[in-house]
Amino acid sequence: MAETTDWKQKYRDSLKEMESEEKRWRQIEQALRRLVGRLCAAGMGVDPQLDDELVALAAANRRNADATELERLASSLTTAVVAVDAVAPVPTIIVSPPAALRWDAACAAAGRILQQLRAANIEEAATLALIGKLPCVNSDATLAGVLGETADVIRVHGEMLTQERHQAATVLSDVTLRLEEMAGYLTEAGNATRSRFADTIIVNDTVMNQVRELSAEAQSATDLGILQSTVTARLETVARQVQDFRKREENRMVEYTERTQRMRTRIAELERETQELHSKLEREKHGARLDPLTRLANRKSFDERFAQEVERRARTDSPVSLLLWDLDNFKLINDTYGHRAGDRVLQRVAACFMSGLSAEDFVARIGGEEFVVLLTGLTAERALGMADQLRAAVEALRFHVRGTPVRVTVSCGLTELRATDPLGAAFDRADAALYRAKRNGKNLCIAG
Prior knowledge:
Layout: H1 2-42, H2 48-62, H3 67-87, H4 97-119, H5 124-133, H6 140-220, H7 224-287, H8 299-315, E1 320-327, H9 330-337, H10 339-355, E2 362-365, E3 370-376, H11 380-395, E4 399-401, E5 404-406, E6 410-416, H12 425-439, E7 445-447
Parallel strand pairs: 6-7
Antiparallel strand pairs: 1-3, 1-6, 2-3, 4-5
Helix pairs in contact: 1-2, 1-6, 2-3, 3-6, 4-5, 4-6, 5-6, 6-7, 9-10
């Protein structure tokens, strides 16, 4: 029973720790959302198009929008910044010392948050990528984008902690019930043993009393007939006591056999339930690494696989290429035909990627309209040819909404992992190449 208490305490301590961790990250997420809102307000007035994007981002932030919507708005904001800058570069705003101090403080706070995420080994690849972007931040809009992505990382980690806490609570509840069943069985067995022992003492005392009384009466008896009657009566009493004891013992044995059989049956049921619970947890663990819309791997799965490939590339000569994809004009599709149509486009593109890759390759959806592919055993030159085939396959998709044909294209930035790469460097190169593909007309694949 002491071991049972220890297990229960360990599970309770684990649940308290996860609840505390979840609460801490929720607080950080709220602080980041407040900071994003203030930065959106501070960035107003530069350009009407940017103002519209900032107003939409601030509104989504106030209503605690999910990661998909925030990523879509951040991507749209980036596109707007690029478009405005291409027509008329955004003028450098000379700020007064207090505003400059606030800007530096905001950047420093963002850096500290990212370093804390890195120290806690939370979404390491995504965190390192954001740390790499922070030195290039030169406006409120770009800082808001980095903070929005940081909030998404924290939200995903918080959801993972919540799911793990619920799973731990479920396991603890099941274990507690099963231990209570075992404790009840052991208690019944102990009570039966004590009852048998007490009954044996009573029978023994009764027989000994009968023997002592019979001995005393035999010594004082003067008539043989009376002595025979006395002996007979005493022996009949002893016989009845022994017979009653045997009946009680037989009943106890039947009860013990039935109880043992019930426990065996229950143990078999518990083993089956344990296997089902294990299978359920495995399914939930697998489901937590899948994007619910496209059924591709999600950002968490990509971060884990990317870290593995970086480590493997550092110790082997086998090449690995990283392909970063983004759907062209996806916001226009959503705004024109609705989000349901946008979801169908994402699903079709995901299926197209899956059908064009081998079992050794890896594909994931890491953002609203962003996908990533890892090609093992391919150099950048060969990966560029594979990427162009996938790009052409997506362009060849025939997609219609309410009878209207919709052209769907993708852009890709790719790079080959280097043995000397720090974690996140390859992702940054691919992201820069994707930006060039977008700037050069879209529906392109460019190697970084």
